[in-house]
Amino acid sequence: MKNNSKPAKPYFDQKPGTSGLRKKVTVFQQPGYLHNFVQSTFNTASNLKGNLLILGGDGRFYNSQAIQIILKIAAANGVKHVMVGENGLLSTPAVSHLIRKYNAAGGFILSASHNPGGPEGDFGIKFNISNGGHAPTSFTDTVFETSKTLSHFQMTDDADIPLDKQQTCYMGEMKIDVIDSVQDYAELMEHLFDFPRIKQLFKSGVLSMCFDAMHAVTGPYAKEIFEKRLSANNDAVINGIPKEDFAGGHPDPNLAHATDLLNKLNAGPAAPVFGAASDGDGDRNMILGQNFFVNPSDSLAIMTANAHLLPGYKMGIRGVARSLPTSRAVDKVAESMGIECYETPTGWKFFGNLLDDKRITLCGEESFGSGSDHIREKDGLWAVLFWLNLIAVKKQSIEEITRSHWQHFGRHYYTRHDYEAIDSDIANELMQKLREKSDSLTGKKLSGQKIIISDDFSYTDPVDKSITKNQGIRIIFENESRIVYRLSGTGTEGATLRIYIEKYETNPEHHNIETQTALADLITIANEISAVKTLSGKQVPDVIT
Ligand code: G16
């Protein structure tokens, strides 16, 4: 038997963040860096041996090389069968679905999500477990500990496998299927939504759309689903060819980065009536109408209120969940429906237990993520189809649907201010000062409003009772306004401070104020409490969403 054992170089910086290990490409290109992380994962996930593994990524720079490395490590670690996407492409939701559909032991997703790509950009790797969802913290902690002391990794010396066509081949005894990246996922979507009804609306010309794939992984998925299966307008998908560097763009579906889409949607009466975008790996979404933006927190609330109108959810929904910084718009809907609304820390992994335990059907986050129990990841194209189906049922525009929701439930004005690439020590100092200050704020009045809760958010998982502390400083006012501060867990340069600000307004006559104006007083308070300008040296946030 061949000796596949090679000496490993331990690394000390492989602690996964909010969603897997994300670093500069140049970090991943260090000798044995990826190998170290992957072998540590194999050591931790003993069930991979003799079983099926799903493998794919968002097509960014280093995707193909990483796939070949992982295949050889998988073969040497006794994996029986690997399904890998054609050209190495699989969206994050598609991986989650394939794991569940084919009873895989797990899957590797290669992506740094919405972070820029290319040789100077970011790369990332994440391991999803057999339920299709993120590995829990206990698992990633073990991987991290292993990666610091690993002495050897196992890897065959086989030649690279061609990934540019669908085929079945072998690496030693390990079977490799290079599969259609889109087929299984598109079938799942057809099962959840009323495709004939949406198609009819496209064909009648009443509905037209523009989906910006941002030169990332969703291009082939969007073309198959929107243009082929739903007969949308011919130019429905823009930037639909995946590129290693996302054509120099930043594949982040928000108002700051999806500028091609915004220009199309704001181009006057001939503009498409519906717009959407997704990110690098296809799990985020942004929803737009003509000159109208749907805040992701509102999107979750509107989905919750209307899910029963769509085929996949016609039996109603069990409960919902949102992350701490996501606005409390969905709480109002849950309350009126008499269902449970869970508040979790940031990170899709916290929804996993709630979904597996059948406590919730829908979940979402302010960071342009929404999803349901159909998989264990957030799902960009699913959200787009949800909205298309809703338009087809309600025969209303995006703006009309959103405004009537506000009229009924009230409007949560909401914004997030990001201060990026701050020195990590300064960012930690800022958070520590806030933590120290937060207790004494409870009961005080600011701008005439009493603070009823001020603390550092801690979460007890209702299923496994695990406790996750220090998840963000929250300041809640008597009139339901709220400020939340936390440091991002996905950046690759210094620290990113996120300040989330929201205000609840029930009077429809006050639903037309520009968001930053509506929140101006709270923004001032948030800046003053944190002393963000003094400490960061920045007078304005780098990104406002
Ligand atoms: C990941 C996580 C999300 C989280 C987002 C932002 O998304 O899966 O749960 O909300 O990061 O996290 P942070 O605020 O810590 O940067 P993605 O799309 O980057 O995988």
Concise account of the structure shown:
The protein is an alpha/beta fold and 545 residues long.
Structure description:
The protein is α/β, with parallel strands linked by helices. It folds into three domains: 179 residues, 3-Layer(aba) Sandwich (Alpha-D-Glucose-1,6-Bisphosphate, Chain A, domain 3); 225 residues, Alpha-D-Glucose-1,6-Bisphosphate, subunit A, domain 3 (Alpha-D-Glucose-1,6-Bisphosphate, Chain A, domain 3, 3-Layer(aba) Sandwich), CATH 3.40.120; 134 residues, TATA-Binding Protein. Helix content is 34%, strand content 24%. The chain contains 18 helices and 27 strands. A seven-stranded mixed sheet has the order 2-6-5-3-4-9-8, with helices on both faces. A seven-stranded antiparallel sheet has the order 20-21-24-25-26-19-27. Strands 11-10-12-13-14 form a five-stranded mixed sheet, sandwiched between helices. The longest helix is centred in the C-terminal third of the chain and has 18 residues. It is globular. Bound molecules: 1,6-di-O-phosphono-alpha-D-glucopyranose (G16). The site of 1,6-di-O-phosphono-alpha-D-glucopyranose (G16) has 17 residues, from loops.
Can you give keywords for this protein?
545 residues; Alpha-D-Glucose-1,6-Bisphosphate, Chain A, domain 3; TATA-Binding Protein; 3 domains; 7-stranded mixed sheet; 18 helices; 27 strands; binds 1,6-di-O-phosphono-alpha-D-glucopyranose
Topology:
Elements: E1 5-7, E2 21-24, H1 25-28, H2 33-44, E3 52-57, H3 63-76, E4 81-89, H4 92-101, E5 106-110, E6 122-128, H5 137-147, E7 152-154, E8 167-171, E9 174-179, H6 183-192, H7 195-204, E10 209-212, H8 218-229, E11 237-238, H9 259-265, E12 274-277, E13 286-289, E14 292-294, H10 296-306, E15 319-323, H11 329-337, E16 340-344, H12 349-356, E17 362-365, E18 369-372, H13 380-394, H14 398-409, E19 411-422, H15 424-441, E20 445-446, E21 449-456, E22 459-460, E23 467-468, E24 473-477, E25 482-487, E26 495-505, H16 515-518, H17 520-530, H18 532-536, E27 543-544
Parallel strand pairs: 3-4, 3-5, 4-9, 10-11, 10-12, 15-16, 15-17
Antiparallel strand pairs: 1-7, 2-6, 5-6, 8-9, 12-13, 13-14, 17-18, 19-26, 19-27, 20-21, 21-24, 22-23, 24-25, 25-26
This protein binds 1,6-di-O-phosphono-alpha-D-glucopyranose.
